[in-house]
Amino acid sequence: MNIATEVWRTRLEAELKDNILGFWMKYTLDDTHGGFIGEMDNQLQVMPGADKSLVLNARILWTFASAYRVYGTAEYLAIADRAYDYLIQNFTDSEYGGFFWMVDEQGAASQPKKQIYGLAFAIYALAEYHHATGRDDSLQHATQLFHLIEKYGYDPLHKGYIEALTREWEMTDHLSLSAKDMNEKKSMNTHLHVLEGYTGLYRVWKSETLGNKLAELIATMLDHILDEDGKHFHLFMDDQWQVKSGNISFGHDIEGSWLLYEAAEVLGDEALLGRVRKAALSMAEAALNEGIEPDGGIWNEADLNGYIDKSHESRDWWPQAEAMVGFYNAYQLTGDSRFLKAAENSWNFIEKYMIDHKLGEWHWGVDEFLQPLAHAPKVSAWKCPYHNSRACFEMIRRLGETLHLKETI
Fold first, then answer.
1. pLDDT tens digits, residue range 77-94?
2. What is the pLDDT of residue 1?
3. Does residue 286 contact residue 253 with C-beta atoms inside 8 Å?
4. Could you tell me if 197 and 127 are in contact, meaning their C-beta atoms sit under 8 angstroms apart?
5. How many other C-beta atoms are found inside a 10 Å radius of the C-beta of residue 327?
6. Domains of the chain
7. Residue 230: closest CA among 288, 282, 195, 191
8. CA 54/CA 102 separation, integer angstroms
9. Do residues 318 and 251 lie in contact, with contact meaning Cβ atoms separated by under 8 Å?
10. Strand partners, 153
11. What is the C-alpha separation between 80 and 60, in angstroms, rounded?
12. What gap in Å lies between CA 199 and CA 123, rounded to an integer?
C-alpha cells in the first residue's frame, strides 16, 4: 500500500505528539524521588525500587530537547529541564568526573562505573539540549565528557574506544553493557553511539579536535567494524580488532547505515562522504534482502550464515524504527523505489504491530506469531522514548524535504 507523503507525515506527527511524547509525560514522572521512574511493566505497573539508568535518562533528555527545538512547546521544555536537572544532580560524579552508569531509586550511585556507551549518550543529549535552549552549561558538560572519553576511553595504539572503566577511570574486567552482551574490549554498539554523540556535538561545537576525532571514528568503523563485504557490522572485538562474535544485527546495520552518512554529512568531508555513501547503501541493501519479512518487519538478528531462528528470535521496537529511517535515507540517496517501499512497509508494520493502541507507547516487540512479548517492560533501562521518537522526527523532516522538492519541480 503506497502512502501519500503528506498523509504519512501527518500520521507520524500524531504518533509522536499524542502517543510517544504524551505517554512519557503522563506516566513516567517520579514525583516521589524526582526525575523519572526506572521501570514499568507492559500493563503500566511501576516496579518499585528499580534503578535508574544513565541511558534512560539521557534518552529522555534528548527526546524532549528535540521536541522543544522542533515545536517550541513549553510542556516539552519542562520535561527536558526536569531530565537535565536530574542528570546533572544525580548522575554527575563530582569526585572523579563523568557520569555514573546507574543510580538507585533515591538517586544515589548504584553502579558507578564509567561506561563509554552511556557517556556518549549523555553527550548526545546535552548537545541537543544546548541546541534547543542555548544553555552554555549544557554545552560545557558535553565538551567535558568528550575530553574525558578521549583521555581515558580512547585506544591510542589501535584506535577506537574501549567499553568501560572503573569509577576512577582505571581499567576493568567488567566491560559489558548487559547480561546478553559479550565481555569484550570493543563493541560495534559503543562505537556507533560514540559516533552519534560526537555528530550531535559537532553540530553545535565546531571544534577542530572533535572534527578530526569524528572523521577518524568514521574511518575506524569502516575499516574495522564493517565486514569485508561491506554488508554487516561485526558486533564484538578485542582491543586489536580481532572479531569475537558471529551474529548479524540487522537493526544495528540499518541504523548504522544512516548514522554513518549523517556523521560524514555533518563533517562536510566530500571524500569521506563518498566512501560512506557506498557503505550505507550496501548495508541497506543487505538488510532489505536478508532481514525483512513480507509484512515489512525486520528481525533483530541472524547467525553468521544469515539463519534466523524465528522460534526464538523476536522483532523488537527499535529495529523497526531504525529500518524506516535507514531505508528512506537509502531512497533519498538513490531514488530507488524499492527502498521507499521498504520504508513504507516498516511504518505499516509499526502501526499495525508495534504501537500499543490500548495502553500507549510501543510494545517491546512481537514474537514469530506477531503477538506482543508478554513480559517485556514498557519502560526500563533500555526501553526509552528515543528510537521511536527519533524515527518520527527524522521522517517528519525528511518527508517535509520530499514535499518541498516536489513543490519546486
1. 999 999 999 999 999 999
2. 47
3. yes
4. yes
5. 30
6. 5-408 (1.50.10.10)
7. 282
8. 6
9. yes
10. none
11. 7
12. 10
